[in-house]
Every structure is written in C-alpha cells, then in structure tokens.
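Handout for the seminar on molecular recognition.
Each group receives one record of this type.
Step one: identify the two inputs.
Step two: read the structure output and locate the region that could contact nicotinamide-adenine-dinucleotide.
Step three: write two sentences on what you found, then compare them with the reference statements printed after the record.
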Amino acid sequence: MILVCGGAGYIGSHCVEILKKEGYDVVVFDNLVYGHEEFTEDVEFFKGDLADISDIRRCFSKYNIDCVMHFSAYCYVGESVKSPEKYYYNNVVGTLNLLKVMIENDVLDFIFSSTCATYGEPEFMPMDEKHRQSPVNPYGNSKLMIEMVLKDYERAYGLRSIIFRYFNAAGASLSGRSGEWHEPETHLIPLILDVAAGKRESITIFGEDYDTKDGTCVRDYVHVLDIAKAHVLGFELLKKEKSSNHFNLGSEEGFSVLEIIRMCENITGNKIDIKKGNRREGDPPVLIADSTKAKNVLGWQKEYSDIETVLSSAWDWHKRLQEKYK
Ligand SMILES: NC(=O)c1ccc[n+]([C@@H]2O[C@H](COP(=O)([O-])OP(=O)(O)OC[C@H]3O[C@@H](n4cnc5c(N)ncnc54)[C@H](O)[C@@H]3O)[C@@H](O)[C@H]2O)c1
C-alpha cells in the first residue's frame, strides 16, 4: 500500500487519483490544515499530524505500507520569511518524524516533493538538476534540508528516495475530482480566474520592467496530472533500481504574467482588470525547467502541460468549486 502524506492537498490529491487509476492501493495521511476532506471521499483516509509521531506510528500499524509519497508541507514563501520556525518545524521536523517511523517499520522507499525554490537565484536558463542549490528563503531552505537528510539516510539506513523538484504546478483533474484550492491563494492562475469569476476585483502584476518579452515575470507551468504521472514512474523506478535519484518537473516552456492574463481572458470570455505593483524581492525574471533527465531516465512524457489544457482545466475546476463549495 502507498501512503500519500498530504493527499488531501492540491498535488497529493491528483497523485491519489492517478495511483488509483493505475490500480495501486492508497491511504492518505493528512491533518487537513490546508487539505480538503472532500478530496479523500473515495480513498482510505487517516487523519493525523506529522508533528505527532504517535499519529504516524498508529497509521503504520494499521496499514501495510511499502512506500511513502510525501506532499505535506507549508508552502507560502512570504510567510516562511516572517515565521521561519513554523516552516522548519512542519517541513523539517515533521518529515524527520515520518522518516523515523518509516525506518522503524523497514519501509525504505520514499518520494519527496521538493521545489525549484531550492535553486535560488537562477544562474542559467533553462535550469537543470546540476544548477547550484542556494535557496533565498526559509521555505526553500526547509526543502533543501530534507534533500540533504535523504542523502545521509540512504548511506546510513538504506532509505531510497526520488526527489521531484516541481516548477509551478497548475491545472486540474479532467475528471473534476479535485483541483487547486488553496486558502489563502497565492498562485497566479487561480487568482486570475477569481477575477474572471467576479470574486476578486483585479490582479496585481508585481513588476513590469523586467528584462523579458513584455516586462513581466516568466514562469514554467506544469500540469498537476503530469506531476502525478511522474510519481508513478518514480515509484516504479525505485522498485526496479533500488537507488535514489532526483528530477526537475517542468513544462520547459515559459509564459509571462501578461500572457497568462490574456489567455485567461480568451478562455473565460471575461475581461481581467490589472493593477500595477512593485517588484517583489527575490522574484527572478525568468524560471524555466530543463526536464530532460525526467524524460530520459523515467520515460516521463508530458500529456497535459500545454498551456491551453492547463488553463482550461483550471477554469473548469474553478467554476465547479464556486458552484459546489463556495
Ligand atoms: N503547488 C506548487 O506549485 C508547488 C511547487 C513546488 C513544490 N511544491 C510542493 O508540493 C507539495 C504539495 O503542494 P500543494 O500545492 O499540493 O500544497 P497543499 O497545501 O495543497 O497540500 C499540502 C497538504 O499537506 C497537509 N499537511 C501540511 N502539514 C501537515 C502535517 N504536519 N501533517 C499532516 N498533513 C499536513 C495539508 O493539510 C495539505 O493537505 C508541498 O510539499 C510543496 O512544497 C508545490
């Protein structure tokens, strides 16, 4: 059975959907601090907190777990700067608790959600896995710390891991099972769609004088279902090779903030009002992944990460969410 920690959250819930489709037995572990119980209705669910090691132990006693996919974390960069302790406790100590119980139970296969934020200021573009890792905020630090822990744990305890460094996860399940539903929301696409849906007055563009095609920041949006598919391939690789590896997951294409806004106007048929804001500290002008390694080693093929599918699936989910839950 695969334990999906954080499976009630955005990316974890999509991973659960794909794993179930592929015939895997899955149990979700989540404290629902940011997750949604609605995303666990058709799957085995254990409510627990990684901060409480006895919750994790009870979960491992109850289920016959042979691999852990770990999506649980706090992910707000700005908040991590203001409250680093909160981030180090949840993202680092929580993960150490989880790894401890895995080792106690001789469960030695681990898949970890890391981030392009571990790279810090870009030194070349597109960024591959050889790029220097030098995060510029506590969120990125907390993820890099776990990457380092995993190297040491493999050597000492034989714990094998696949580390995925995601760029911007976006889009939603085509089945309508789940989608992006963060509260508070900080990601660009759902914020723009809020404006399109009349829930928010305008979208603020932070900086229009970058050295990019139209002056606004350029990002790489990878469909959440493609991320989920990579996890299945990562699991198969772990079982076959019994050794650790790490991969970037990105669409390898860059779109500016302004381009995304214009495309959202086309898809939704609604005008999106824009406000001008100042640049945000630590926002690089361009972030684009080189995912060649995932393609070559895992055989990862992106199926959904063209920008039209990303935006239209996000919009379908957004409308559904408004009708059903809000
Ligand atoms: N969303 C992105 O674009 C993106 C990009 C790079 C990396 N990541 C990483 O991917 C992972 C998933 O991101 P997401 O966007 O799905 O976030 P999310 O907040 O939607 O999901 C995280 C889940 O973990 C749960 N959780 C948090 N702390 C917990 C704890 N102590 N015990 C049990 N459950 C806990 C939350 O309730 C939530 O359901 C995170 O680790 C994040 O750092 C996300």
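Reference statements: The radius of gyration is 19 Å. The chain has two domains: 2-169+222-249, 188-219+252-324.
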